[in-house]
Amino acid sequence: MQIIYTLLLYLIQPFVWLKLLWRSRKAPAYRQRWLERYGFCKNKVKPNGILVHAVSVGETIAAIPLIKALQQKYPQLPITVTTMTSTGSERVKSLLKDSVSHVYLPYDLPGAIKRFLKTTKPKIVIIMETELWPNLISQCYKQKIPLIIANARLSERSAARYGKLGKAVKQLFSKISMVAAQNQQDGERFVSLGLPADHLAITGSIKFDINLSNEQRQNINQLKQQWQLKRPVLIAASTHSGEDEIILTAFKKLLLKHANLLLILVPRHPERFKTVEKLISDNGFNYLKRSTNQIPTEQTQIVLGDTMGELVELYAMADIAFVGGSLVKQGGHNPLEPALHHIAIITGEYFFNFQVICEQLIEAQGMIVCTNSADDLYSTIDRLLNDNSRRVQLGENAYLVLKQNQGALSRLLAVINHYLNIK
Q1: How many Å apart are CA 357 and CA 401, to the nearest integer?
Q2: Cα–Cα distance for residue pair 267/274, rounded to 1 Å
Q3: What is the SS3 assignment for 202?
Q4: What is the DSSP letter of 354?
Q5: Which CATH architecture has domain 23-209+406-420?
């Protein structure tokens, strides 16, 4: 099965190049650094250290506390962080700067993987969440490099898909050194697919182990002083295509009752900034772009969040947060970032990427679920704007869930230390 997989991967490479070129129309970074995608990274990394792979932005953000903890615990070991997307790459560079080496993880071709491992010579490979690359896993196993799937999650739907591959998946999972799962249900799915039971640890989700850095606190204080907002603020964050129209329709209706309401609209992907700006403009809203550093006035109705790396700070400006990717079948995004700011959280029905976390928040009355209609979104936000005590209580409940579930990072570090075997 792996031979067929590898052959197909070689055959589709011309189409991969075409896709990179297509994506580069809106994100020029996809036209650059192609050699890294085939394992050529000599003089770009420091070998004999720790390799952390975070496929894109969400995984990168989740990995930051782990990476900083590893730097503190193992200062003698260089760290290389890999991503697959240009936005993930930008986030690594902006958040970690020169404290780590950064390259793209090569495509899962045997030659590229061997070349990459020969250059990096990692003592351990840590893959965030559920990036299962057969040739990478097999080469690490063959070269006796410990490979850990950290903060691992495996939905019922994904497990069913893997299960169709039968023995091939069982053989692959037997080569993984350790799966550090977010919860018992996810862990049991890994074991049911062939992971040896003693290769499983339930560490919890390190997404809960987030705190504001001193720099973030300073940025938030500065932003609050600059904006001087004395009006209710709604943020719609990490939105996808198909959601912005729903949000803007609901917002237009909200303005009829709450004329001073300010919306901060933050699309998930930078290549959509111009598309969303056109939507805002075509609907006749008075808006400004965050990238211009203009200060919202009383007449400003929408701030378009067209910058990268500021979402945590922008959440701090809001009273109510809608977490995107959940009105359409994207699976939602991390609701714990707004929880960090004690604000009321709304999600759509499609939150399967954060199923367990969202269920915890819903059960604790720290999150509200609405349908994918503009009318339901409008009525949900309207009720919160009219009920200050409930809105505040929702935010406090969400923050309590966040704090009560912290501690996964220390458990994950204990797992990693076992494989590094460093006193």
Answers
A1: 9
A2: 10
A3: strand
A4: G
A5: 3-Layer(aba) Sandwich (3.40)
CB under 8 Å to 296, separation ≥6 — which residues?
A: 227, 229, 262, 288, 303
| Cβ atoms within 10 Å of 157's Cβ, excluding its own | 9
Q: Which amino acid, one-letter code, is at 401?
A: V
pLDDT in tens, 365-418: 999 999 989 999 999 999 999 999 999 999 999 999 999 999 999 999 999 999
Catalytic residue among 36, 59, 90, 337: 59
- In the beta sheet, which residues pair with residue 200? 179
Coil vs helix vs strand at 321: strand
Question: What DSSP designation does 262 have?
Answer: E
Token pair recorded at residue 173: 């999972």
Q: Which residues in 256-274 are b (16+ Cβ under 10 Å) and which e?
A: eebeebbbbbbbbbbbbbe
Same fold, 23-209+406-420 and 218-404: yes
pLDDT value at residue 211: 87
CATH domain 218-404 topology: Rossmann fold (3.40.50)
pLDDT tens sequence across 145-198: 999 999 998 888 888 988 888 888 999 999 999 999 998 999 999 999 999 999
Alpha-carbon radius of gyration of the chain: 22
CA angle 98, 102, 105 (to 5 degrees): 175
58: confidence class by pLDDT, cuts 50, 70, 90: confident
* Domain ranges within the chain, ordered by starting residue: 23-209+406-420, 218-404
d(CA 276, CA 378): 19
Told to judge if 313 belongs to the known catalytic residues of this protein, a careful annotator would answer no
Sheet holding 50-53, edge to edge: 101-104, 79-83, 50-53, 124-128, 147-152, 178-181, 200-202
CB atoms closer than 10 angstroms to residue 350: 16
**Whole-number Cα distances in Å, 65 to 162, 216, 406:** 30, 14, 12
Question: Which pLDDT value is given to residue 422?
Answer: 60
Task: Read off the pLDDT of residues 109-129 as tens digits, 9 standing for 90 and up.
Answer: 999 999 999 999 999 999 998
- Tell me the pLDDT tens digit for each residue of 326-380: 999 999 999 999 999 999 999 999 998 888 899 999 999 999 999 989 999 999 9
- Cα-Cα-Cα-Cα torsion 175, 46, 90, 403, nearest 10 degrees, comes to 60
Q: The whole model's pTM is what?
A: 0.79
* C-alpha to C-alpha distances, 76 to 48, 50, 70, 100, 413, nearest whole angstrom: 10, 10, 10, 12, 16
